[in-house]
Amino acid sequence: MPAKRSFDAEALEVAADLGTLSSRAHAPRPRLFARIPDSVYQLAGLVALLVLVAWSIDRLNIDLERLPGLLGRMGATLAARYFPPNLPHVLQPDYLHSVLETLEMSYLATVLGIVLAIPLAWLAAANVSPARHVGYAIARFIIMACRSVHEMIWTILLVAVLGFGMLPGVLALTLYCIGFSGKLMAEAVEAIGPGPVEAMRAAGANALQVFVFAVLPQVRVAWTGITIYSWDVMFRAATIVGFFGAGGMGWYLRESVQRVASQDVAAIILSIIVVVLAAELFSAWLRTRIARAVA
C-alpha cells in the first residue's frame, strides 16, 4: 500500500500548478502577423522608399537624361574657364590679410558663442536644469531659434541692419554657434550619470554647486571636443559669410564672381579648400591632445 503523501508535498504541487497557470495568463499573446518574416517588412519599406524617390523626381521635374554627360560638361567648363587658376591673385598681401580676418572672425564668434551656450545648455538639460518650468523652455527656444536659421540668412539680415563689415559676420556666426554647440552641450549633460548629481543634492548643495562639482567633471571632455569642433564649423562658415558682405575671404570671392574673373575664382576656391583642410587637421590634432590632457 503506497504511503500517503504529506500535506507539504500536495501544497507544493498546487503552488506549482498555480504558477504555471499564472505564467500562461501573463504570457505575451502572439502577434497577428507573427508568421510573416521580418524580411517581408524590410522589403516593403524598401519598395515604399523607392516609390517615394520616384514620385519626388517626377514632381520636381528632374531630367535624369542630363546626368550621364554631367561630368563631361563640368570638366569642359572648368578647363575652358577656370584653368589655370590665377595663383598670384591669392598671394597678394590684401588677400592674405583677408584670410587672417576670417580666422579672427571665426575665433571670436566661437568664443562668444560658447560663453553664451554654456548657461543655455545648463538650463536646457532636463536632468539638471535649475528652472525646469520657465528657464528650460526659454533656453530650449533660444537654442532652437539660433539653430533653425542658417548662418547665411543671419548674415543677410544683420548686414541689412548693420551694414557691410566684420561685425555682422561675427554676430551671425555667434548666433549659429549658440544653436550648434548649445544643442550638443545640452545633450552631453543629459547623458551624464545621475549618481554624483543625486549625491550632491542629498548633501544639500544648491543648483550651481551641483553643476560645478557634479556635472562639469563628467562633461569636460565632451565639451572640450564640442568647443574645438564648433570652431572648425565656424571657420568653414566664416569663409562663406563674407560673400554676403561680412568681409574676409568670401568678400574677395564675391568680388571676383561679379567681375567674371573665373581664374581668380578658381584660385580663391582652391585657397579656401587648402585653408579649411589645414584647419580640419589642426582641430583634429588639438581635440586629441586636449582630450588626453583633461581625461
What does this 3D model show about the protein?
This protein is mainly α. It has a single domain, classed as MetI-like fold. Helix content is 78%, strand content 0%. It is built from twelve helices and no strands. Helix 5 packs antiparallel against helix 10 and helix 9 packs across helix 10. It is globular. The N and C termini lie far apart (77 Å).
Question: Summed up, what is this model?
Answer:
Helices cover 78% and strands 0% of the residues. The protein is mostly helical.
Explain the layout of strands and helices:
Layout: H1 7-26, H2 38-59, H3 70-82, H4 87-90, H5 93-124, H6 135-148, H7 151-162, H8 166-190, H9 194-202, H10 207-241, H11 249-258, H12 262-294
Largest beta-sheet characterization: none
Report how far the terminal alpha carbons are from each other: 77 Å
In CATH, the topology is named MetI-like fold
Backbone structural class:
mainly alpha
Provide tags for this entry.
MetI-like fold, 0% strand, 12 helices, mainly alpha, 295 residues
